[in-house]
Amino acid sequence: MTKHVGIDLGKFAMDLYVLEDKKHIHLDHTAENIENCAAMLAKLDIELVAVEATGGYETNLVVARRKQLVDMQTMEKNRKDHIADKIIARSITNVIGTIEKEIDKVEKQIRQHIDQQPELKEKVRLLKTVPGIGDTTAAMLVVEVPEIGRINKKEIAALTGVAPMNRDSGTLRGKRMTGGGRRTVRARLFMPVLAAIRHNPVIRKYYQHLRSQGKAKMTAVVAAMRKLLVILNTMVRNKQPWNCKIA
Predict the structure, then answer these.
(1) Beta carbons of 56 and 119 less than 8 angstroms apart
(2) Are strands 23-28 and 13-18 parallel, antiparallel or unpaired?
(3) For residue range 182-222, what is the model confidence (pLDDT) as tens digits?
(4) 3-116 — its CATH code?
(5) What is the residue extent of each domain of the chain?
(6) Which residues of 140-164 are buried (b: 16+ CB within 10 A; e: fewer)?
(7) Treating both helix axes as pointing N-terminal to C-terminal, what angle do 201-212 and 183-199 enclose, rounded to 10 degrees?
(8) Which among 122, 116, 144 has a CA at the least distance from the CA of 240?
(9) What element of type H or E holds 5?
(10) Burial of residue 54, with CB atoms counted within 10 A of its CB: 0-12 exposed, 13-18 middle, 19 or more buried
(11) DSSP at 244
């Protein structure tokens, strides 16, 4: 039986109601519960999900679903790489195609949610003024890093896992590494940072300086990502578009 689900998302709580089952679920609004909610919805035969717009919080749920779809897409692609049987390979290709269509639908919903929220829409506009930052990256940042513009430079680096940390143990004594934080954000920023290294004069100069100092390529890329995030955070906080002097 197909289901109709209503979701009301607030700052601190979220309520779900499955019409056909007359089932009501009340949860704290946390990242973990959003993931659990998206997983639960994925198991149902749903015809319609109605999400009340309450200040942009509903976007987090849509992004959680996008992450699930992308993870599924990656798993299917990995399977295809190791399959020799043509019939199974064709089946996997069909599944990948279906998942890609669903990702397109979810991304369209994300763009619609942002367009309906003046604050989010303005953040996206500001971020897109930065050389190397396009529509997709700007939307990803305002949705998956809602803290952007509200925290300091150390916090934004730690939140996204690009803050250097000392690992003083064994042979790693004194070696500074990065990690933790929001891995998916870090992964999705990799290509935009490479674009920024090519087209953004500030990031390019910073990257080239690190390389000239003998820093490894990946170390310099991560450092460039950290600098870019700090700049973006400052722009959103000060409500100002890109300017080389910000750096």
Answers:
(1) yes
(2) antiparallel
(3) 777 888 899 999 999 999 999 999 999 999 999 999 999 99
(4) 3.30.420
(5) 3-116, 120-246
(6) bbbbbbeebbeeebeebbbbbbbbe
(7) 100
(8) 122
(9) strand 3-9
(10) middle
(11) G
